Amino acid sequence: MELKLLFPFLMLHVIHDVHSSSNQWKVTVPEKITVLQGSCVVIPCLYSYPMPKSKKPLTKWKGFWLKGKKVVSTNVPKFKLVKLYNKRSQFLGNLAARNCSMLLDSVGKNDVGPFHFRIEMPQFKSFSYSTNPVTIEVTRDPQPPVLSMKMNEKLTASCSVSHSCPAILPRFSWSHPGNILRRSKKLNTWKWETVSTLTFSPRVSDFNKTLNCTVHYRGGKKVTSSTIIKK
Ligand SMILES: *[C@@H]1O[C@H](CO)[C@@H](O)[C@H](O)[C@H]1NC(C)=O
Ligand SMILES: *[C@@H]1O[C@H](CO)[C@@H](O)[C@H](O)[C@H]1NC(C)=O
Ligand SMILES: *[C@@H]1O[C@H](CO)[C@@H](O)[C@H](O)[C@H]1NC(C)=O
Known about the structure:
- Residues 1-20 form the signal peptide.
- Keywords: Disulfide bond, Membrane, Signal.
- InterPro entries: CD80_C2-set, Ig-like_dom_sf, Ig-like_fold, Ig_sub.
- It is found in: Membrane.
- By secondary structure, the chain is mainly beta.
- The chain has two domains: 3-139, Sandwich (Immunoglobulin-like), CATH 2.60.40.10; 146-228, Sandwich (Immunoglobulin-like), CATH 2.60.40.10.
- The protein is built from one helix and 18 strands.
- The chain has one helix at 2-22, and strands at 26-28, 32-36, 41-43, 46-48, 62-67, 70-74, 89-91, 102-104, 116-120, 126-128, 135-139, 146-151, 155-163, 171-174, 179-186, 192-200, 210-216, 222-228.
- The strands form six sheets. It has a four-stranded antiparallel β-sheet, with no helix packed on it.
- The longest helix has 21 residues, at 2-22.
- The radius of gyration is 24 Å and the shape is elongated.
- Residues 1-20 have low confidence and may be disordered.
- It binds 2-acetamido-2-deoxy-beta-D-glucopyranose (3 copies).
- One 2-acetamido-2-deoxy-beta-D-glucopyranose binds next to loops.
- Residues 46, 92-93, 99, 101 line the site of one 2-acetamido-2-deoxy-beta-D-glucopyranose (NAG).
């Protein structure tokens, strides 16, 4: 009896939620992103707006990333950006597809934000999503990579790091020659994992020696992890 009464209510509630979330001024961005100093960051961003009354489809969108009143990045061609961000930022998003992602390169210790997105639709309305700012935590030193090793017929070593810069992936160098493979995957909306795998057939003289993996980040920082080659 109780369930019967509850069910229609729940259904209505769900339908109402789905409707309203895509038809209002809303932006989906991370609150805080951790970025290595000197490296880059892609700020993921999706936005939505209320349904315009007019049936005419919109054709023009101007998107701006702002820090206070300063424009950090835009899709508007030839727009004069603040010097600090000129040539360091890139507007990646496709505004027609409600994507407002941006890239910031050579992140400095003062690039903490907060940054927020603004949309201008000349055929409709403009809106600043200033209640959903993005802040950046700039770290000075990279974490050492996680190094692991597996011995089958050959030796396979894996060296793994997480980062925020999918546009310019970290490079890896190994202290031993072999077959090297690099791959990346997304950990969340802004964090990526890049893994380098080294495979080789060890000689007797390789055992008990150090194996090093060095990660070279965008911006020049590097960090090494070591392990001992064992059977
Ligand atoms: C938004 O655009 C960025 C940059 O092109 C892309 O990497 C990302 O996958 C897009 N997001 C969605 C949800 O389509
Ligand atoms: C590995 O790195 C350590 C210090 O980071 C260095 O002393 C050592 O010579 C390196 N070993 C090899 C085989 O490159
Ligand atoms: C490596 O070191 C272990 C002890 O630490 C020793 O028993 C073994 O013989 C060494 N192997 C080689 C190939 O040097």
